[in-house]
Amino acid sequence: MTHRATGNRALSTGALARVEGEGAMRIEITDGRLVDVKLNIYEPPRFFEGFLRGRGYGEPADITARICGICPVAYQMSACTAIEDALGVTVDGQLRALRHLLYCGEWIESHTLHIHFLHAPDFLGYDSAVEMAAAHRGVVERGLEVKKIGNEILETIGGRAIHPVNVKVGGFYRVPARRELQPLRDRLERGHALALEVVDFVAGLDFPDQEMGYEFVAVAHPNEYPMLGNRVVSDRGLDIDASTFLEHVQEDHVEHSTALHARLIERGEYLVGPLARYSLHAAKLAPTAVAAANGAGLGTTCHNPFRSIVVRAVEVVHAFETALAIIDGYEQPDRPDVPIEARRGIGHGVTEAPRGLLYHRYEIDDDGLIADAVIIPPTSQNQATIEHDLFHFVERHLELEDDELRRQAEVTIRNHDPCISCATHFLDLTVVRS
Amino acid sequence: MKSTGVASLVVIGVGNPMRRDDGVGAAAIALLEQAEFGRNSDAVELVLLDGEPTRLIEAWRGRRRAIVIDATRAGVDAGAIHRVDVAVEPLPDWTTTGSSHSAGIAEAVALAKALDSLPDELVVFGIEPADLSMGEGLSPAVEAALPALVELVIDEARA
Known about the structure:
The complex is a heterodimer. By secondary structure, chain A is an alpha+beta fold. Chain A is built from 13 helices and 14 strands. Chain A has a single domain (45-330, 343-381), classed as Cytochrome-c3 Hydrogenase, chain B (Orthogonal Bundle). In chain A, helix 4 runs antiparallel to helix 11. The relative contact order of chain A is 0.23. Chain B has helices spanning 24-34, 53-60, 102-114, 140-158, and strands spanning 9-14, 44-49, 65-71, 81-85, 121-127. Chain A binds chain B through residues 14-15, 17, 44, 47-48, 51, 66-67, 69-70, 113, 117, 128-130, 133-134, 137, 140-141, 144, 147-148, 151, 161-163, 422-425, and chain B through 16-19, 22, 48-55, 57-58, 96-98, 100-101, 103-104, 107, 110-111, 114-115, 132, 134-135.
């Protein structure tokens, strides 16, 4: 246990297993007053932007899928959407439905991982899912089962459990016959029932009162709760086409961070992710998800970051019901992809990764090679807001000893599920008191 | 085991080939496939994972034996190979610090123990990385250690 001290002091954590990715946080306290909170999250997409230049237009779907082990589908969907936009191709009908189904699998897996193995231990007073498993074995086993069913969607449609290999620009390499989806359908029925239980479970947790004044930003679709779409909206009037995203969002280099912090031009920080999607589009959730949200006591919007666990659980119900509806309406398309001809062009793609809006932009040259790539992941967009949350929290809890301050600051970060690289697991925290 | 459709031995390569030496698990699996290891055998399955703990548990649950291959930083010379038999010794410190996915293995083992989901035998081969930066391709030291590593895995599997 470390204690407060009057001199300068620096504390560092060892490995912190429950934030996906690697990051560092620095809290500066002077004369008992919070002066600064800085979050530095390492972002692999920067590397990938350079890595993609000069490669064929068909390559980003597979390469960017490797940015994140937890959300490869999101990277594939945003990459394909942007490249198809550049090439003047539209993927719709059953091919789009299959992509939507694949995305449901990723939402189920990613959210269920976060709910059970990262977030729930915070509410139940455990340091890890391992500790929680001893006392709440049934909860953890149920989480494992739901997650596995999500994974089965990825295996069936994506061809593989991690880094799906079946997705390509224009559609898929192979599409399933209708009967191939029936075994999956049975599993999804089971998953849907379990997901409803999970909503009941998380709704019963104790949540601190903390209403934040976020500006919510999410993809919008005329009649779907957004996974795929091409407009971007906010609850304060932003309503733009994906192609103008970079005219409204500015990425700033921040001195303390290797990441870029995204802000809405002339508006400032904003939040993407489950709270934003829910608050903007709750009316478009599948019926059983709407009922589950009502039963869990969620209003029409949710500004409490701790309650994001409930919103994730509701979104899992939505993903199961949506997946079932897609399978029920599925007819095997004549061909697995839309024909593509390489041409010069610029394209934009926005889709909803489990943790929020993921923007890709590609410039393709006459030879079909990538001339330029821009990738703006959800975590980059949320970083300024997470810092703001941290400042708000730490300012009101300066009396805490360092260990407890660190623990609770980590909880504040986990509220936003900042999946960064999923390749490494570190959060180094430094508290400087002077 | 054949009747259940689950191979009794799973060999799991862990890591991200876009993080240079972190791709050693995938490289070892590729060599095992090339060597037709386990080909035409219902008893052996080769699996690639990213190290996320619950996926590891899913991969070895219900198996009799599991072998895990990963880049792990023990602070020794690059390319050095460590072997840990999880049934007979605790996971050493190097599985919980310093490496990209070893925290995943340690957590997966602890969680699996809590859920009674460890295979009867679980052996972890850790390879000391030289370079975990973004990019493709193994460092010379790890590349050089790869054949010996694959031999060790094959010997282990046949033991």
